[in-house]
Amino acid sequence: MPTTGVRSMHNVLLIARREYFERVRTKGFLLATVLIPLVMGTLIFGSMLLMVTSKTQSHVAIVTTNNSLGTEMKQQLEGGQQAQMKVDLLAPSDAVRSQLEAQLHAKDSTLAGYLWVTPGETPEARPNVAYSARSAGDIATANALQDALRAVLMRERLTAHGLTTGDIDQLTAPVKIDTSASGDSGAAFLAAYMLFFLMYMVIMLYGMNTARSIIDEKTSRIFEVLLATIQPEQLLAGKILGVGAVGLTQISVWMLAAFAFAGSGLAPGMMSHGHPLISLAQIGFFILYFLFGFLIYSSIAAALGAMTNSEQELQQLNMFLVIPLVFCMVMIFPIMRAPDSTLARVASLIPFCSPLLMNFRISLTHVPAWEIWLSIGLMTATIAAILSFSARVYRVGILMYGKKPSLPEIVRWMRYS
Amino acid sequence: MPIVQLDQIRKQYGSKVAVEGLSLNIERGSMFGLLGPNGSGKTSTIRMMIGMTVPDSGGVSLFGQPFSRKQLARVGFLPEERGLYKKMKVLDQLVFLGRLHGLDAATAKSRSVAWCERLQIADTLQKKTEELSKGMQQKIQFIAALLHDPDLIIMDEPFSGLDPVNAQLLMDVLIDQRTQGKAILFSTHRMDQVERFCDSIALLSRGKLLLSGSMREIKSQYPRNRVEMIFTGNESFLDHPSVETYRLYEDGAELKLHEGKESRCVLRHALEHGTNIVRFEVMEPTLEEIFIEHVKASFGDADNGGAVDA
Fold it and tell me: Does B296 fall in a domain?
């Protein structure tokens, strides 16, 4: 029946179109589209900025008889890459100790702590070092001191063994591993993780919107008019597509903004060694799995919407939406460790998990094509099954509206409609 | 060829029988009243007519053919519980509903505007539905049911909540539609609203058909033995042997005559006794009376439990 097919597609698209435009035109949509990335961006880059710029700037005192050690530490701490501290060099004496203690407890003093270096018993032995701090929580300063001390001691010993400054610099220079051939695994992981959360958020956000939209129609009783021309399957499919398109629009706006941002060079951290964190294929898979994920979770939401008559009832049932997502979250760690294990492969083939986990695996490892196809097939079948189930529940549910169905009732509904 | 033909349809929800062995025909160019108390199966019957549910047994034919969803493009439906998208503009809403019924966007738009003008709500076209009064929303829903020029118009309680002026406006539209040859089905428990307009009726109670046929036929089965009078002067004619009982009012009286007695005799008798008669009217039984009589009888007969609106 080709004409019937065209006709029902026409209806699905009409419903979807209405849903889309009515949502996109709202102020809420505009606000969410602009504000969410703004807030997220501010948070992420704010914290990155803080991390980069927050060199330790505390004021400390180093008490030592070893002048060269003291001077080198002072140099490292005052002009180093991580620290821009103010360092006082003092010679040990009881008077100094009591003076420093007094400063440490004085409110108007800036002294964050002092390092008391007692030389070792033999020249080869390491010195004993004690640190007294104003606040035990000032870990950054303590760490900076520790790092500096270690470096200085090492240098000293190496020099004592006859190495030149050049040799030492070469020895202590950080090692760089070129990963450009296989891609930056750390970065890929970060990207996968980001996508995972993006997907999680959008699914939760828009999945619930689908359910709400269905409940809205029940409360406003428009469905009676709609069902006088179209079938529940068409109505539900239209809703899922329409609300989904809104989600896609929003996420595309965000993605475009992110790319524009990355491209503008404002976020050099997003690119590593000239490789984009997210490859083109990854974007493709992300979009594919996002679409499927959205469709699956929206159809679950549609089923929930079909079963309930109010927002409150929906709240009680939304665990059906959350549980699979939480399961995915739990699975992400074993998959991260061994993306090719049987557990990972099975979990990523479960239709409710595929959108998140298969996508995650694809970004971590080489997933055989048949697994990808299988996951797509399973997801498609699941969506169709949920949709026809929801349509039945919906049809019978609205005919007997007013009371919440019990599980045996829903099972019985399956039989007649 | 009847527009709607129901043949022994039956529908059961769980243990509750909603409609039992109902048969009826609705003809072209007629107004049909589907009457019955709340819960008598009117809405279930309509839902089976428009394919929202499928009867457990029996047949539904529309336009002379067994029901198929394609035929729904020729049906206009105003549900009892009105529903419109609250946040949507009236015009957008009407165009959307028109397109769902198979109109193209341009036709849907021009018809929406024309209808809104006809029903005197043209100024609401660009407003959101939630800004409108209930009566206006009802008119919009009414338009939505007629937008695609359906051959079968199904109206579930179309005038509830409308003021008399607007109810008349909508009634005029429906009469006009009947003249154009459309079949119109009213479902209501308000007999007085449909009495003057319906050509035929079906009376439902507890899912069963109590009575059906053309209005004239049904009414002719009931004796015209009630007289309403407005008069001044001598009241002694009320003791005429033809009068069974009477009720006296300030300005007149309501009489019930013995069966088979001519009202003429009473009138002549009154005139002869010098009563000054302003009005003398032989009353037809109202639909409401017939309805109440039947429903009472049916509840009396079948006292097998189950509330009226169960």
Answer: no
Burial of residue B177, with CB atoms counted within 10 A of its CB: 0-12 exposed, 13-18 middle, 19 or more buried = buried
Which domain range does residue B272 map to?
223-283
Mutation pick from B100, B141, B154, B156 vs chain A, by most beta carbons of A within 10 Å, is B100
Pick the CATH number of A57-166 from 3.30.70, 1.10.1240, 3.30.870, 3.40.190: 3.40.190
pLDDT at residue A97 is higher than 70: yes
Size of interface A-B (CB pairs under 8 A): 64
For β-strands B226-232 and B252-257, DSSP reports them as antiparallel
Query: What is the rounded distance in angstroms from the CA atom of residue A408 to the CA atom of residue B171?
Result: 46
B chain contacts of residue A416, beta-carbon cutoff 8 Å? 13, 56
Residues of chain A with C-beta less than 8 angstroms from the C-beta of B141: 225
Phi, psi at residue A268, to the nearest 5°?
-65, -20
Q: Are B196 and B188 in contact (CB under 8 A)?
A: no
Domain match, B196 and B259 both: no
A406 touches chain B (CB under 8 A): no
Same domain, B275 and B147: no
Task: List pLDDT tens digits, range A153-186.
Answer: 888 888 888 888 888 888 777 777 665 555 555 6
Are B200 and B178 in contact, with CB atoms under 8 Å apart?
Answer: no
Q: What ipTM goes with this model?
A: 0.74
Report CA Rg, chain A. Answer: 31
> Are residues B57 and B199 located together in one domain of the fold?
yes
